[in-house]
Amino acid sequence: MKRRRILATVAMLAAGSALVACSSDEGGSDASNCTNTITKQNLPVVTMWGWYPNTQLVVDNFNKQNDEVQVCWTNVGQGSDEYDKFQTAISAGTGAPDVIMVEMDRIPTFQIQGALVDIRKYGFDAVKANYGEGAWKDVSVGDAIYGVPVDGGPVGMIYRKDIFDKYAITPPKTWAEYEQAAQKVKDAGGPLFGDLGANVPALTMALQIQKGATPFTYDPAQPKSIGVKLNDQASKDVLDYWGGLARKGLVGTQDQFTPEYISGVINGNYATYISAAWAPGYLTGAGVGKGQDTGKFAVAPLPQWDPSNPVQVNWGGSAFSVTKQAKKPELAAKVAYGLYADNESLTDGWTNQIIFPLNLTALNDPKFVDLKVAFFNGQQANKEVYVPAANAYKGVAYSPFGQYYLDAMTKQVSEIIKGSVSGSQAADRLQEDVAKYAKEQGFTVQ
Hints:
It is a single chain. The chain folds into 2 domains: 10-152 and 316-375, D-Maltodextrin-Binding Protein, domain 2 (3-Layer(aba) Sandwich); 154-313 and 397-445, D-Maltodextrin-Binding Protein, domain 2, CATH 3.40.190. Helices cover 40% and strands 14% of the residues. It contains 19 helices and 14 strands. The protein has helices at 10-16, 55-65, 80-92, 107-111, 124-127, 133-138, 161-166, 175-187, 201-211, 233-247, 259-266, 279-285, 329-338, 343-351, 360-363, 366-369, 381-392, 402-418, 423-440; strands at 45-49, 70-74, 99-103, 140-141, 144-145, 148-160, 194-195, 216-218, 225-228, 251-252, 272-276, 297-301, 314-322, 444-445. The strands form 4 sheets. Strands 1, 2, 3, 6, 11, 12 and 13 form a 7-stranded mixed beta sheet that branches. It has a 3-stranded mixed beta sheet with strand order 8-9-14. A hairpin with a 6-residue loop joins strand 8 and strand 9. The radius of gyration is 22 Å and the shape is globular. Pfam families: SBP_bac_1. Residues 1-20 form the signal peptide.
């Protein structure tokens, strides 16, 4: 979820970061310094960077089951720490691994630099049916495939059952009902109904997409041209809606992922939390649902703008990509396709709330679908909310300068919160800012 702009800062990153590994004869980072132990010494080795908490198990499972190639795994840091090191390796032309774990919305950033391999010719047809349309769309740039999806974040509405019961609220099915319920709770002296956080711009983007926005269109066949459409009516409607809720005092304006926000969630300061399928694991780790608030949470489908035409959205997700520095991309692709694809690894991932799996073997597994989620007091949240949302998700075209856009969105939502601009005005400012930046990077803006 943490990302960093790159197009304008390649030189700075190259100067400011140190290479984490030397290149080997096989290409990529050094295969002599693995975190894991490789037991099949006679096989070729593919190097990999990744940070999933159970990567050791995932790599060991792959290596045990494979007699063609072995994985040498190194954890060089999570998120932007890894990306900085990868950017350094891209700039230097050496030091990158053969396979790298990346968040899906980072793929265009590295693809536009020629740092990733289109894996379609390396066995894609054999695994295509293992993932849904939306999952493949999120790892694509144009028609090319630059990653193998692993986990995602279908969005739902977590809510406090005790607050809903106290104020006789049923889970709203539309955003109009959401506002009505928020007003009812406020009028009765209840807590805030939700939160408009400036520091979750990716969620704001997802909610705009749900309304019908298409922020970016990009075709690598025309690498210097990009569509930037951030102030269309759908985008304005969503910002005006949430800005209006904040202005009326129906939702808070606290940054999320902060101790203050988590304290508010625990204390019942918010009736709802709009978030992704990974949220229960995050909240549990942050101490939510373990004390006075145990058993008080449930989840419902994301409210819709038009219930007759529901749209599901996603927030977050990662993939394994093959880097251009891999001298044997066919072997690297075999690793990318095979990591986190076996039943044992997938089951460990979703059982321990490490991933929300996108592999259909797990996504359709009755044990996963019918799971009674402890955080939701035994509710079958996957069956009722998250799996249907994941199956209905159609995917997004991300921008090659996504971090700049997200930073710019954060600034504009902050201005909405301060009351200095309306949602529509913020959308216009965002369009002007990002379009200008795109032109500075050499794009023709459509």
